[in-house]
Amino acid sequence: MMKMKHVIAVAIGLSCTANIKAQDPFVMTITNTETKVSHPITKSEFEAVYKKNNGKEVNNASKSVKEYVDLFSLFKSKVYEAESMGLDTLGSFKSELAGYRRQLAAPYLTDKNTNENLLTEAYERMKWEVRASHILIRVEETALPKDTLEAWTRANLIRNAVMGKMPSSSEIANYDKLLKNSTEVAKLLKGKDSSVYKAKFSSVKNLADYYKSAKDKFQDLAPKTSDDPSVVDNKGELNYFSSMDMVYPFENAAYNTKVGDVSPIIRTKFGYHILKVYDKRLNRGEITVAHIMVKLPKDANEQDKANAKTKISELKDKLKTMTFEEVARQFSDDKQSSDRGGLLQPFKSGRLPKDFEDAAFGLKNNNDVSEPVLSPYGWHLIKRIDLKSTPAFNDIKNELKTRVNRDSRSSMGKNALITRIKKEYNFKENLKHRDEVVKELDSTYLKATWKADRVSKLGNKEILNIGGKSYTQNDYAKYLESQMMFRSPTDAVELGKGMYRTWVEECVVNYEDALLEQKYADFKNLLREYRDGILLFDLTDQKVWSKAVKDTAGLKGFYEKNKNNYLWGERADVTTYKCLNDKVAKELRKLLKAGKTEKDVVTTLNKTSQLNVSVENVTYLKGENKDVDANWKTGVVANDIKDAKENKVLVLVVNNVMPKSPKLLAECRGMVTADYQNYLEAEWLQYLKSKYKVSVDETVLGTIK
User: Fold this and answer.
1) Cα–Cα distance for residue pair 88/76, rounded to 1 Å
2) Three-state DSSP class for 56?
3) Which of 258, 320, 370, 417 suits a disulfide with 382, CB 3.0-4.6 Å?
4) Pairing of β 128-138 and β 38-42
5) If 0-12 CB within 10 Å is exposed, 13-18 middle and 19+ buried, where does residue 300 land?
């Protein structure tokens, strides 16, 4: 729908990109003769539209300006007519336009330089793969400061231990206090549940013992200290990954940490991470392979293993006499891929078992087949189908832009914009006045029953000021109330302070959003293009499209006046008997000659077999069937017709030949409706031209080249 409405506006070039200057003369005036309201059009507006479209709708440069006067003025007349009918005041119109405005505003509400740098950074990183392990200390993004402090302290002590520095007794004692004071542990201890406390405290208290027994000081400590559930199986090992595979802060740490080093503590939406980089290599690309698998049970004994190895060798030998796809379909134990000749979905590094991936990416050419490869699932023969390396930047830029916009790194552009706006508009804040508001929050806020008017007694003092626009205590209170939901018991005051940053960001962005039409002529003109496009669509739908469909009486009357424009050509009503063989056809002709009906013929001939004859009744236009055309008269066609495709003998009966005649309305409603729409539009345009008079200043028009 958006595209359709946009096209209508764009089709006559309503996008104006020129700034209206102080001495911008009027090139024309469009006057509503009924209301006497005049709408002057500036030279700059008309000139911008003309220059945008010159060479598209018009070809003769010497006449194009004057031709465009008619095109432009007619469009403007439609817009003014829609406004006179109040279509621009409807809630549906305002809602739709607001939705388009949000879409158009989005590129303006982020820092373009930052976004371009993010695209370049993401692409350059895509050329490399990183192999790393991590230890996760889980903490919610919205956690209270005391819970954040507990998590960070634990992460710091673990990282120090990984680096060889064990926690001192005082550090352990201090952590113990922080842990007991944290929200979750304090609540559980009060309920006599100490399991979480013991697990977290042990992960710090026993670090020295864990370190002594560890071979790999990172991966062996990970299962003892990490909150990641998968750590039991993988020791924090993440295999190889590339750009856009991980959340942005984690990716940054991985690419900015040298091989063999441990990263600083990093914060993501999952909590705190400690990361060790084990390897970096050029991106191996995306590979498509097929495989033949001999499954190996998890509890396989030595004989099972020997049998599987023997079987994969035998299958390798079969490739000498059978194609890879044939062997896969017949013998592969991977039933999900065997029907496709063993074909797997394309994959990148880090998605499948290491030995399988190494063998697949080790194949040099398409159609090369590996030696037998053992993975945790069993034995494999792998055939390379295709390998795609990292595409050129311009080939992937649009896709990359979409992924960046969906990724957490997209906030970088927004943050840069907020920083710029704060500086540009002299942002000021008074945290004391903020704190007066959050002190009014209590348990009722957590139960979603708190009311913003509780802060009215504070005097509505200013908290923020952006470009002279004041944001007050009442404003913040209303925001807090709008964000209210039922929450688990926590510190409501700290919660209010935590929500403050989001409110500030919204205020700053909204302030900039309100100025877009003033600051950016392109945005203002593009928004007007969409606005007028919606109005034109709604108006045309009301006056032409929907009217033609809903006005059944008008449609019928139009049809009656013009029904000779909707004629059937000459037609023949034909019955085709499809006979099993010549013998059946001969018997059929006897029955027809005897005057038997179609039903009698079929019943008689199909007594011995239902396959003897079948019937098809079709009305053919002349030219649709060459056999009917050759016998364009009523009666039984004299000669049988051989149908080689169905291997049948056809006997044709032309029941009726009909001359040209008007179609019924039901038979041509689509065509009639389309013509009725054209009729209505022509009448409507004549009405608009009579209602809106155009006065052109030829002198000003002559200056437009």
Assistant:
1) 14
2) coil
3) 370
4) unpaired
5) middle
CATH of domain 128-282: 3.10.50.40
Q: Residue 24: exposed, middle, or buried by beta-carbon count in 10 A (0-12, 13-18, 19+)? A: middle
SS3 383: strand
Structure confidence at residue 461 (pLDDT): 96
**Looking at the chain, which residues constitute the CATH 3.10.50.40 domain(s)?**
128-282, 286-388
Tell me which residue has tokens 């054209």: 678
Residue 342 is classified by DSSP as T
Listed residue (232, 231, 217, 230) closest to 276, CA to CA = 217
Residue type, 646: E
Say which CATH class 286-388 falls into: alpha beta
**Interval 523-533: pLDDT, tens:** 988 898 889 88
Instruction: Report DSSP state, residue 580.
Output: S
Report field, pTM of the whole predicted structure over 0.85: no
DSSP state of 664: P
pLDDT of residue 2: 42
For residue 8, the model assigns a pLDDT of 39
CA proximity to 631, closest of 648, 616, 653, 661? 653
Sheet with 26-32: strands ordered across: 38-42, 26-32, 692-696
Cα 396 off chain centre by: 16
Greatest CA separation found in the chain? 116
**Distance from C-alpha of 384 to C-alpha of 216, rounded to nearest angstrom:** 35
Cβ atoms 275, 132 nearer than 8 A: yes
Q: Kindly indicate whether the domain formed by 570-659 is annotated with CATH number 3.20.20.
A: no
- The runs of H, that is alpha helices, within 375-491 are 393-406, 410-424, 431-438, 443-446, 473-482
- Which residue, among 57, 89, 4, 12, has the nearest Cα to 541 in the 3D structure? 4
Helix (H) or strand (E) holding 643: strand 641-643
587-591, long-range: CB < 8 A, 24+ apart: 588/613, 588/651, 589/636, 589/651
Strands 271-282 and 373-375: unpaired
Give residues with Cβ within 8 angstroms of 187, minimum separation 6: 489
Pairing of strands 648-658, 571-579: antiparallel
Q: According to CATH, what is the number of the domain 1-84+520-566+667-705?
A: 1.10.4030
> ∠ at Cα 178 (174, 180), nearest 5°?
115
Burial of residue 46 (number of CB atoms within 10 Å: 0-12, 13-18, 19+): buried
Question: 165 — alpha (psi -120 to 50), left (phi > 0) or beta?
Answer: beta
The low-confidence residues of the chain, meaning pLDDT below 50, are 1-22, 55-62
Return d(Cα 642, Cα 647) in angstroms, integer: 7
Tens-place pLDDT, residues 515-566: 999 998 889 888 988 898 899 999 999 999 988 889 899 999 999 999 999 9
Q: Give me the amino acid identity at 300.
A: A
Where in the chain do CATH 1.10.4030 domains reside? 1-84+520-566+667-705
Phi, psi of 415 (to 5 degrees): -65, -40
